[in-house]
Automatic annotation (TrEMBL):
Source organism superkingdom: Bacteria
Biological or metabolic pathway of the protein: Cell wall biogenesis; peptidoglycan biosynthesis
Keyword Nucleus: no
Organism, scientific name: Enterovirga aerilata
GO cellular component: extracellular region
Full protein name: L,D-transpeptidase
Family: Belongs to the YkuD family.
Amino acid sequence: MIMDSGKPDAGDAASLGRRPGLLGRRSFLVGSAAAGVGALGLAGCQTTDGMSFAEASKLYGPVPEEKFPIPAVDISKVDPKYYRRTVAYETKEAPGTIIVDPANYYVYRIEEGGSATRYGANVGRDGFRWSGDAYVGRKSEWATWTPPREMIKRQPEAAKWARGMPGGLDNPLGARTLHLYQNGAYTLYTIYASSDPESIGSGITSGCVGLLSQDMIHLYNRTPVKTKVVVLPA
């Protein structure tokens, strides 16, 4: 999967940056899974879930204060049902717990009073999905990404980053990463920041979970190390 900051640990990527002259994000999708949600025709200024186009544009606007300033999301490329929102969610899990629902492409952060903050996500493609309990063992900002040997064999163009790709807008891990652990060991799975709006609502990774950068920063800031993470069956 996608990997660590600072150390050349093996890791696979959902994607790489799209800037001209650089290796395309989708060129690093493992296998030939089709990704993307087509551009939506948003009638008028109201989205289907009641959020106005202006509200969504503000929610996913630029983040210029970052080490690498994050551009605004092209929200026309995201189905409005995947916009961040507070929803009713009954669970026995404690507030703060993160629940990943890969079947529906959502990540929930449990709140008080039977509610949750819901984020749209990309998830593992068929054959790479997993389920179970984990916890956040580490957190990284603008982490270094290192492709695993297996990925380099499949996609030789990744070899240029064999010693690590520095953090930045074109790095697959993006602005923030939550590294998932089980029983004291790193699972190689992460929840990471994606700058590809068309990936939201798709199964494209080799098991990691991606949120739009603005959503990932929102979740990251509210998630301490040791937070429980529940990944539901797909």
